[in-house]
Design brief:
This protein is of the alpha/beta class and 273 residues long. It is 38% helix and 26% strand. A hairpin with a 2-residue loop joins strand 11 and strand 12. The relative contact order is 0.21.
Length: 273
């Protein structure tokens, strides 16, 4: 059932009126989403964008960077672990976004890491950030990074004694969960050291009870936005819900969104019950 959206009633709105005047926010350029965030993402936040196949995670991520460059003059870095630069350029062209032009103008960098076959990619990202100094960063996807890090250099930094202790008190799955949590704290903590606002995508199964593929990162991230895709007969609907956003109030309803000619459009006037 659809209803008229209202996020202005009650004391929280009066508080937000004051907060809006002092907090620096990073606009996504997606009008409905920015309004739902009462002006945009708090600067420096690390936001998890979770959803299943076909929900538009990569599209929203690209739109965040393209809008940042074209509308607000902010540099963006897109770190991909699943699609090559050519594939991303092709996907972006469907919405009229010329990634090559933005790269030539030094407003965007797109890098592709085959993380399961490469080493030291965290160090390489750090070096790129130091040189390019992006205000916006996208990592697509955290799911692939987490899988790779469990088998790479960050795993070597995990204390052997901690793993041995965990093995004595719980079965192997518990040990893997502890290791995943340690690795994620290392990774996300390192990313939050950058002077950037960061969006990271995470795969989400339709039947999942978690808000991420790992079940941990939603607790570490500053914000969580969940994208859902469902169908009734031949009709297809997509919904977006801001489940968490530190340092600001926000709309908490499930908002309708759709793919349009120039990207994603969030319909703030429509909520999905």
């Amino acid at each position: 059932m659809l209803k008229k959206h209202d996020y202005t009633n009650g004391a929280p709105f009066k508080y937000e009126q004051t907060l809006l005047q002092t907090m620096i926010r990073v606009k996504t350029g997606i009008q409905g989403l920015d309004k739902a965030l009462l002006g945009g993402i708090p600067e420096g936040n690390l936001v998890l964008l979770s959803g299943g196949a076909g929900t538009g995670k990569s599209t929203i991520s690209l739109q965040f960077l393209v809008n940042g460059a074209l509308l607000f003059g902010e540099r963006g870095l897109y770190v991909s672990t699943e699609q090559s630069e050519e594939e991303l350029q092709k996907a972006a062209s469907q919405f009229g976004w010329d990634l090559v032009d933005l790269e030539n103008r030094n407003m965007l960098r797109v890098v592709y890491f085959k993380v399961l076959g490469e080493d030291h990619f965290i160090q390489r990202i750090e070096e790129l950030v130091k040189v390019f100094k992006p205000k916006r960063i996208v990592v697509d996807s955290l799911s692939t990074f987490t899988d790779a890090l469990l088998m790479s250099e960050l795993q070597k930094d995990v204390s052997v004694s901690m793993v041995k202790i965990a093995d004595t008190v719980s079965p192997v799955p518990r040990t893997e969960q502890i290791m995943t949590k340690i690795i994620l704290y290392n990774l996300l903590g390192k990313l939050k050291e950058f002077d950037s606002t960061i969006v990271m995508t995470s795969e989400l199964r339709e039947d999942s009870q978690s808000l991420s593929s790992d079940g941990v990162s939603e607790f570490i991230a500053d914000g969580v936005i969940v994208l859902s895709y469902f169908s009734v007969g031949v009709a297809v609907s997509r919904s977006l819900r801001i489940r968490k956003m530190r340092y600001t109030n926000h709309d908490k309803s499930a908002l309708s969104y759709e793919f349009v000619q120039n990207g994603i459009e969030v319909k703030l006037e429509e909520t999905i019950m």
